[in-house]
Amino acid sequence: xxxxxxxxxxxxxxxxxxxxxxxxxxxxxxxxxxxxxxxxxxxxxxxxxxxxxxxxxxxxxxxxxxxxxxxxxxxxxxxxxxxxxxxxxxxxxxxxxxxxxxxxxxxxxxxxxxxxxxxxxxxxxxxxxxxxxxxxxxxxxxxxxxxxxxxxxxxxxxxxxxxxxxxxxxxxxxxxxxxxxxxxxxxxxxxxxxxxxxxxxxxxxxxxxxxxxxxxxxxxxxxxxxxxxxxxxxxxxxxxxxxxxxxxxxxxxxxxxxxxxxxxxxxxxxxxxxxxxxxxxxxxxxxxxxxxxxxxxxxxxxxxxxxxxxxxxxxxxxxxxxxxxxxxxxxxxxxxxxxxxxxxxxxxxxxxxxxxxxxxxxxxxxxxxxxxxxxxxxxxxxxxxxxxxxxxxxxxxxxxxxxxxxxxxxxxxxxxxxxxxxxxxxxxxxxxxxxxxxxxxxxxxxxxxxxxxxxxxxxxxxxxxxxxxxxxxxxxxxxxxxxxxxxxxxxxxxxxxxxxxxxxxxxxxxxxxxxxxxxxxxxxxxxxxxxxxxxxxxxxxxxxxxxxxxxxxxxxxxxxxxxxxxxxxxxxxxxxxxxxxxxxxxxxxxxxxxxxxxxxxxxxxxxxxxxxx
Length: 613
Hints:
Elements: E1 5-7, E2 29-31, H1 39-45, E3 56-58, E4 84-86, E5 94-96, E6 108-110, E7 118-120, E8 129-131, E9 144-146, E10 151-153, E11 160-162, H2 174-180, E12 186-188, E13 196-197, E14 210-216, E15 221-222, E16 234-239, H3 250-253, E17 262-266, H4 275-278, E18 287-291, E19 309-311, E20 333-335, H5 351-355, E21 360-362, E22 368-369, H6 375-383, E23 395-397, H7 419-436, H8 438-456, E24 473-478, H9 484-498, E25 503-505, H10 506-509, H11 516-525, E26 527-534, H12 536-539, H13 542-556, E27 563-567, H14 578-586, E28 589-591, H15 596-611
Helix pairs in contact: 7-8, 13-14
């Protein structure tokens, strides 16, 4: 039989006979993922097979509990020509690569999404891609064996190494990895609780081009010259929580990186860092992304003739000066999304940036103060619709234009002939309105106010509830970031780690870069429950009040059983609004206390709410 590709994924297969696959001598690609095939079944079904041309085997999402010599179906000659093995989301805890010793020309091995804690290495001379992400590794895996006068490299051809989302905290072995994996070009250790990076930590990785250390879990200590490398081209560095990566001298940390092309920094406090000094030695940068880093001021970005992407979204920038961007002669994308910019002037950027048809702008989600001074920008957006996201540029002030697009800004009053004519028309209008009667005036006034209120609040409508029976999260948690300590030490510790519920936190689970309001609504829609953590900090936060309005709409829609309020403290009377009083009177809630008996009752009520379907 000349069949070359056979896909039998998600077929509920539990048994394969010994001779079922024997006629497939020309088979090159076999996908048996998402079935119920145990090690013993695979061992028996391939025991009678001879040599074949199979190159790729995917047995992901099967109950495979070990990779060892026990029931080792990999020793069958049928698999000898394999180039790629994919065993994702199995249940492997211990992994012995000796089991794959007969597959001499293996190029790619994907064991992501298992529960691997330890690995016994083996020499794979041709292995180029190794994916161990989403496992439970505590230490960096051994990549070579050193004896007194010799060294054995287990993966001499390895180019791409995925280790993200494990439990790795120590990186001392990075120097060893560098001396063993001479061909390594990509290393991903994101989503790990890494504690420190020493001096010249990756200098031995002579061919390393891409290093990903973003979304780190917990505090980290960075030493000077930690990322020094004469070959590194892309560096992604950041933490999941603001405050865990601050107080470092990034000027010296990034000093010896002359070949760096792409730099992404996320959730790092750079409020007191001079960007010009920090980036002084990175003259070859083509892409710079500094997101959620508390940047307030932009010092002149000089000496970056190759920079094509500049992303400074989700910072504290209020004003832009063209002198900061004079040197960006090759820029193609400029993003200042979700900063504190209230106005844009022609002097904010050099003329060549405004005039170039190839440059894309993103200033969405900034609190623009709309008035005559923005008329030029409104007209510029109309002429350059393909260069910006005009419908996302909303007014914050004045009140009557709140949440309205700048594209529809009414600037007719900016061109009134004279104050005398304005006064004349005002008097005539007042007399006319008076003649038509006070009743009509009042009706028109309330109609106008009602119209403005409806337009202002149109985004607060509750999205349609997810119809699926399974949710991505057990609960969405609405809280103020100043209450983060209680969230992490009490709520997460009790609900997630002890009772294994999956909660959605906006700081941790919403990835920067998307429209924040839309992402909040999506997360609420994908959550089974909705918890509001009330405090005076919460009631003083505009985003928290926005989420409170969503909760009120859910209550009005008959979904009050999905809501739960936690009161961290007594709420000041100035914050007791009609909406909050309605929630407190209609929705189950619990008050936080440090009293031992009260604390026991508190968690009993919270867990009872989470248990309800």
